[in-house]
Amino acid sequence: MLKHWRLISLLALVPLVLSGCGKPFLSTLKPAGEVADKQYYLTVLSTLIMVIVVVVVSIIFFYVIVRFRRARVGENTIPKQVEGNRFLEITWTVIPIVLLIVLVIPVVLYTLELADTSPMDKKNRKAEDALVVNVRANLYWWEFEYPDYDIVTSQELIVPTDQRVYFNLKASDVKHSFWIPSVGGKIDTNTDNENKFFLTFDSKRSKEAGEYFFGKCAELCGPSHALMDFKVKPLSADDFQDWTKEMKNYKHTSENELATQGEELFEEKNCLSCHAVEPNDKRAEAARTAPNLASFGERSKVAGVKDANKENVKAWLKDPESIKPGNKMTGTYPELSDAEMDALYEYLKGLKAGSK
Ligand code: HEC
Ligand SMILES: [Cu+2]
C-alpha cells in the first residue's frame, strides 16, 4: 500500500482542487433556470447509466477472475462452454438496447425542445412575448443589443427573470462561444452565420447566486481568451421594463468640472472614435468596434475582469496591454497624463442610465 503513497497523496489533493467548484454564479452543477435544469438532468441520467454499467461489468469481471482462477479450479479444468447460448446472447444484446432507449428518449425530446426558437422568428413578434437579444462576441469583449428597444450595451447582459429570453449570436472577428455555466450554453458565435437559442433565468435561484452570474467565452480565441468574461444581471420583469425606459431616455450631462474636462478629453484623445457613450448611438456600426460605455458607471468590472474602482480603471487607461494582452485598444490613442486619467475616470464613472 505504502508503495503507492505518491499516487494516494495526489488523489488526496483532488478534493482540495475541486472545492473551488460549485459556486452558484459559475457552476453547471448549480443550475439556475429551465435550460440548465434540463442539461443537468441529462448529465445526471447519462452518468448514472454509465456508472451502473461499469459497476455491474466490474463485479462480473472480478467474480470470474476469483472464481475461476487456476489455483482454485486446477491446471486442466475447462469451464462449461456457453458459446451460442441463446439466453445469454439475447440478454446481453437486450440490456444495452434498453439502456440506450432510456438515454435516447429524453435526449432527443430535450434537444428538440431546447432548439425551438420559433417564437423569436414569428412575424409581428412583440418583446413582451419573446424578448430577443442580439449577442456579438469580439476580441475580447461582448456586446448585447436589444433590437425591440433600440438599446446597445456591453460587458453586462441585463435580462428579465422567469421567461424565455431568445438569443441571436454571432462574432465580429473570430469564433467565440457564449456560455453562462449556471444558466446554459455553450453555443458557438460564428462570423459567417447566426446561431439561435433561448435561456431562462429563475428568479429565486438568481437571488441565491448573488448579484450576477458569470458568463464566459468557451472557445479559445487568442491570448486574452481566459479574460473574456461578461456578467449577467437578472431583473424582475418590472425592473427590466424600468431599465429599458431609463436606457431609452438616456441623457448624460457631466456633473462637475472634472467630469466635464474628462468629457472633452474623451473626444480629444480619440476615445469617441471607437466608443459610443449612448445606448442608441446613431453612428451605429462605427460605434460598435468597442464596448458601449453608456452604462459604464454601473458596471462592476472594468474590461470584464478587474473591479471597476479608480485604481483599476486608470491602470486600464494607462496600459490596457498589461491587463488584457492582445486587446484592440492598446496603442490606438495618445498617451495620457495622470491628471487626464483622473478626469477621464470622473467622466466615465458618471455614465449611467438614469443620470440626468
Ligand atoms: C481603437 C479603438 C479604441 C480607442 C481609440 C479607445 N478604445 Fe477603449 N476599448 C476598445 C476596445 C476594443 C475595448 C475592449 C477591450 C477588451 O476588453 O478586450 C476597450 C475597452 C475600454 C474600457 C473598458 C470598458 C468596459 O466596459 O469595461 C474603457 C473604460 C475604455 N476602453 C476607455 C477608453 C478611453 C478613455 C479611451 C480614450 C483615451 C479609449 N478607450 C480609446 C477600443 C478603443
Ligand atoms: Cu473568445
TrEMBL record:
Q: Which reaction does it catalyse?
A: 4 Fe(II)-[cytochrome c] + O2 + 8 H(+)(in) = 4 Fe(III)-[cytochrome c] + 2 H2O + 4 H(+)(out)
Catalytic activity, EC: 7.1.1.9
What is the annotated localization of this protein?
Cell membrane; Membrane
Q: Which chain regions cross the lipid bilayer?
A: 41-66, 87-112
Domain (Cytochrome c): residue spans on this chain = 257-352
Cross-referenced PROSITE patterns? COX2 (PS00078), COX2_CUA (PS50857), COX2_TM (PS50999), CYTC (PS51007), PROKAR_LIPOPROTEIN (PS51257)
Give residue ranges for domain Cytochrome oxidase subunit II transmembrane region profile. 20-118
Look at the named UniProt entry and state the broad enzyme category this protein falls under. Answer: translocase
Cofactor names from the entry are:
Cu cation
The Cytochrome oxidase subunit II copper A binding domain extends over 128-246
Q: How does it sit in the membrane?
A: Multi-pass membrane protein
Q: Which UniProt keywords apply?
A: Copper, Electron transport, Heme, Iron, Membrane, Metal-binding, Respiratory chain, Translocase, Transmembrane, Transmembrane helix, Transport
Question: Entry cofactor note text?
Answer: Binds a copper A center.
> Pfam families attached here?
COX2 (PF00116), COX2_TM (PF02790), Cytochrom_C (PF00034)
Q: Family assignment?
A: Belongs to the cytochrome c oxidase subunit 2 family.
Q: Which NCBIfam families match?
A: CoxB
Function (record text): Subunits I and II form the functional core of the enzyme complex. Electrons originating in cytochrome c are transferred via heme a and Cu(A) to the binuclear center formed by heme a3 and Cu(B).
**What is the recorded name of this protein?**
Cytochrome c oxidase subunit 2
UniProt lineage: Bacteria, Bacillati, Bacillota, Bacilli, Bacillales
